[in-house]
Automatic annotation (TrEMBL), chain A:
Main localization (coarse): membrane
Family that this chain belongs to: Belongs to the binding-protein-dependent transport system permease family.
Protein name per Swiss-Prot or TrEMBL: ABC transporter permease
Record keywords: Cell membrane, Membrane, Transmembrane, Transmembrane helix, Transport
Domain of life (superkingdom): Bacteria
PANTHER family assigned: DIPEPTIDE TRANSPORT SYSTEM PERMEASE PROTEIN DPPB-RELATED
Subcellular location: Cell membrane
Alphabetical GO biological process terms: transmembrane transport
Taxon lineage: Bacteria, Bacillati, Actinomycetota, Actinomycetes, Kitasatosporales
Automatic annotation (TrEMBL), chain B:
Keywords tagged on the record: Cell membrane, Membrane, Signal, Transmembrane, Transmembrane helix, Transport
Name assigned to this protein: ABC transporter permease
CDD domains cross-referenced by the UniProt entry: TM_PBP2
Coiled-coil parts of chain: none
Membrane topology: Multi-pass membrane protein
Subcellular location(s) per record: Cell membrane
Signal peptide segment: 1-28
Protein source organism: Streptomyces albidoflavus
Amino acid sequence: MSTPPPPVPPAPGVAARLGAALPPRYVARRLAGTAVLLVVLSAAVFALLQLAPGDPARTLLGARGATPEALAEVRARHHLDQPVLVQYGHWLGDLLRLDLGTSIRTGESVASALGDRALLTCQLVGLGFATALLLGLPLGVLAAFRERRPTDRAVQGLGVVTLSTPAFASGLALIYVCALMLGWFPAYGAGEGGLDRLRHLVLPAVTLGLAVMAVLLKLTRAAVVRELARDHVTFARARGVGPRTVLFRYVLRGAAVPVTAGAALVLAYLLAGTVMVETVFALPGLGPLLVDSITFRDLPVVQAVALAVATLVCLANLAADLAQPLLDPRLRTPAPTPKAAR
Amino acid sequence: MTRVRRSRRPGRLLTAACATVLALLALAACFGTALLPGWDRQDLALGAAMPDATHWLGTDALGRDIAQLLVAGARSTLAGAALVALGAMVLGNALGLLAGYLGGRVDAVVHRLADLLLALPALLVTLVVAGIGGGGYALAVGVLVVLTSPGDIRLVRSAVREQRHLPYVEAAETLGLSRATVAVRHIWPNVLPVVVANTLLNFAGAVVSLSALSFLGLGVPPGAPDWGRLLADNRTLLYDNPSAALAPALLIVVAAVALNLLGDRLHEAFTDRGRS
């Protein structure tokens, strides 16, 4: 009589596999951290009203006549006669209901003013990020493989130059050369419809990508140099594994973690860069709106844009944090205590 | 891997070139307005003109000579950036020394704070805070100091943590010196070279950031000879006199590249020396 074969354990489901790769406790801790950070940043954004010189009610009234009745009305509407903490509570409540207030300058609702312009800025940031990745990552890998040789020096020199060039300077040079002299691309404006929009965004996206490329380049080069010096890479090379396999199977897997963390940082630089790029190329995105609103002390709009940027930066960092254990199994088992990890 | 030691000659030439550029810029910043008393003379009849023998880089819309404006503007552009770099060095070193040497709770708080500030887009925060606060240039410089310091904090903190278990620190502590003396007189000098190199890099970053702020119309008033401001004012003249806008852009880039390269070179020299 033959014994029945031992039961095959069922293959782990997708949820279980994801749970193993992304420990729930780790996710929960990161989510909580992001929430705390968002509260802190929202408080800072709220405090901008207190930072503006003079009476907040007059600031919110703007250029309109500051009659006692109008001031009283604004104070009542924004709860300005109550303690600051209560004001913050009301403000946060409005925010969660997506009521961002009305623009002092135009009188329209802030949400609609932002909505019109956010799409263009998102397109620009997306294209700029793609350009930065396409330039920064390959060049960083190339420089690392040619460490301390002329190619490396040249790539690093390029990095220093792009790092030293403010986005408005390179944008202006690109307008002069590619739009005015060669006539390849339009110099200003956002264009209409899909392809025309894309054509108008080529120069701005390249400008933006160049401005932040250097950070990615530096990070990638450092990470790849570090990986190349590791024993398992040396061993792979010694046993005759081809350079392409070494690069993709061994080096890039190890370098992925620091580069992902850096990519989140790059997003913060990108958001700052768009303000300048949109100003140079006369693109009606969030950047010029922010600059104009600051000049006119249009506080509700400034607060809304600042909050949007802060949220994006937080989410990018969260995404990078969550991607790390997926990329590197060693990070999946949590360190017993933070002290021991250090 | 064996590395071929190449001649350092091109590197030295580059360093010398950077130092020369920076010395010239420093001269312009100190004595530019004194040497060129007529730098802001207007010629409204001339208006924006292409470069010629009398106006090497042409003129702007008010008929002012671009070359003279650029020399006169070196001070406004570079002085603020130097202040940012030095302020960040002082703040960053103080907090970094404190965190690295004391460790424990102080370290945790300072480290967290530095990480938070580092994740923020410095230029945007400065733009919003200085713009809404109404403090203009001075407030912008102050905010940039705070937002630049986290880099220094991290650098000094990690350098101090490396040093603090070395025998000489133990010896100084055994002698009964106060903790402040050990930190400032004994540890800090060993950390200083990297700090100096980093301050040059911060200087370069501040040149770029501050000229971006004046490009966006914050800080210096319209018509001031600040390079970023000149670029913003003259970018509509690309057809009439392109050098009115491109020359200030080029100067900003040249200044920042020289500072960055010199900083990198110093950093390399110091870390190499430490290794051998």
